[in-house]
Amino acid sequence: MNAQLLILLSYLLLTLFIGLIFSKKSKKNKVEFFLAGRNLTKPLLFFTMAATNFSAFTIFGFSGAGYRIGYAFYPVMGFGTGFMALSFHIIGSKILVLSKKRNYITPSDFVYDRYNSLFLKRLFSAVMVIFTLPYIAIQAIASGKSINSLIGIPYYYGAVLVTVFIIAYVSMGGLRSIVWTDFIQGIMMVAFTLTAFIIIAHKSGGFVATHNKINMAIPSLFSRPGNNNAMGFGVWFGYMFLWFFADPMFPQLFQRFMMAKDEKSLKTTIVLYPIITTFLFFLTVSIGVMGRLTFPLLTPDKTDAIFPMLLGQYAGTFLSTLLLTGSIAALMSTMDSQLLTLTSMITTDFFKIKKNEILKEKLTLIGLGVLGLIIAIKPPQTILDFVSKTTFNGLSVLAPAVIGGLYWKKANKYGAVSSIIVGEGLVLAYYFKFISTPGIHSIVPIMIATGVVFVLASFFTTSRKENTGIVFQIKKTSLQWAPVFLTLFILGNDFWAWGRKPVIVAGLPIWIWYYFGLGILLSITFKLFFKYTETH
Asked: Domains of the chain: which residue ranges?
């Protein structure tokens, strides 16, 4: 057995050991197995929220996009995802309160409790399952490609290897094993990605010198709207718009709203979120940009492998494999949560598995992993394009039914069902290219149509069995902050500065430094927002 394979297996066995530690406790009940007893403290909640959301897309998709598009991709991810944390408050804090009072287990439990419709509950769950499967697949795809690139194991064998270990530790330890592996994997992901960034920048000639060469050779990588006009304003704004609705509808994140010990734990996560996205996401996009100097002629289907390719080029056999485990950690910390959450939804919402039927839950878990591997047999050209058109768009459609259900008493099951059906119809129409809106991200017209249908259908129909008793009233103190967050969002779409020749400071366009500052300002704003609304 070579040293590279030994390092990888040692890490995978560590995750298995963690699953074994929590295997006895996870068998107590469904709340323990799926929600870790609803008792996650501040550090555990932050790390599991971050690690779960930062996936193969964060490492491989971002670096691939950086290679193809340039730094124009960074703000929509660094600032856009950080700003999205506001939805954790708008949606997550309310789901947290309700889940403790009303004993929710799955995301669809709220939908059923609010709208009193079994059909809607199952439709909601079905959409979450169907559109999360492609995201599960990209974790397998990324693991297979990265292991093949560095160790030489055939692509599909690598994908199967990682998936099998994930299924094993999740089925043994439930959510507690996931939370603690997320804690370890989150630290590994940040530390190893930073180390890889430093090594790649140094070995390629120094960060500033490398960037000056790239700017001379391919200046479009430093511009907005990016290389080949890839991030025109309609697409840029679309991604900023997308994250706010897509991310909280990820079933693995939605379920985590129910796991927090209290609202303070969730608020801490929200405050810290823009900091981690601002700096971690820069690292992975920047690695992709620097990769253009070392591997200048990659075809699009090869670009998502730029991260392991650069490690293989500059880090040496042992170190490159060790650093690769940080990337594997990122995808494992997402895939494990996705598998567990979907298992809870399928077994609760469709099969109605009893307390003592643990074997059926584990078989469901295995089945989902196999489905992900089947999708991974034929990998897409790029991760970004694939998940944007499938998972992100498909899950975003669910947001109006959730937000409306939380805050609007007139919202009803007819509005929710019709909005989901119309929205998903448009998602499919865009995916199969029956509809196209050149220069505008498809999510913009999809969400406009979905929201309009939801409001109109709810307004002009009546359902007497709605549970409006759990609807929240929006606080005036919170509304007073709306202009502040709107201003920050506008600043994040600084279209007035586009098209100018970038001023380079320390190797980077000055607008990158602007977004570093904006990310920090967003975090401070969240902190002040919670301080003000708590005391008034």
From this structure: 3-34+54-535
- Contacts for 118 with CB less than 8 Å, ≥ 6 apart: 112
Q: Are 289 and 213 in contact (CB under 8 A)?
A: no
Taking the chain (536 residues) in runs of 10, the rounded mean pLDDT of each run is: 78 77 60 58 71 76 94 94 95 93 91 96 95 89 83 88 86 71 78 92 94 94 91 90 92 85 86 93 96 92 90 84 78 80 86 64 87 89 82 95 96 97 96 92 96 96 92 91 96 86 92 96 96 72
- Strands (DSSP E) along 137-230, which ranges? none
The rounded distance, in Å, linking the Cα atoms of 441 and 132 is 20
Three-class SS of 77-93: HHHHHHHHCHHHHHHHH
Strand pairing category for 504-505 and 508-509:
antiparallel
Q: Measure the CA–CA gap between 101 and 105, rounded to whole angstroms.
A: 12
CB atoms within 10 A of CB 290: 26
Q: The CATH number of 3-34+54-535 is which of 3.40.50.720, 3.30.9.30, 1.20.1730.10, 3.30.200.20?
A: 1.20.1730.10
Q: How many CB atoms lie within 10 A of CB 143?
A: 29
DSSP state of 38: G
Q: 3-class SS at 433?
A: coil
Which pTM was predicted? 0.89
End-to-end CA distance of the chain: 63
Which helix (DSSP H) or strand (DSSP E) does residue 448 occupy? helix 443-459
| Closest among 521, 534, 483 to 83, alpha carbons compared | 521
CA-to-CA separations, 320 to 3, 42, 149, 323, in angstroms, rounded: 11, 32, 11, 5
- The residues, ordered by sequence, that sit 6+ positions from 394 with a Cβ below 8 Å of its Cβ are 127, 130, 131, 424, 427
- Rg of the Cα atoms in the chain: 22
Distances (CA, A) of 352 to 38, 49, 100, 258, 313: 21, 28, 21, 20, 51
Crossing angle of helices 62-69 and 263-294, in 10° steps, is 50
d(CA 119, CA 223): 48
The CA distance from 40 to 20, in Å, is 20
Output the six-digit token pair for 337: 């949560």
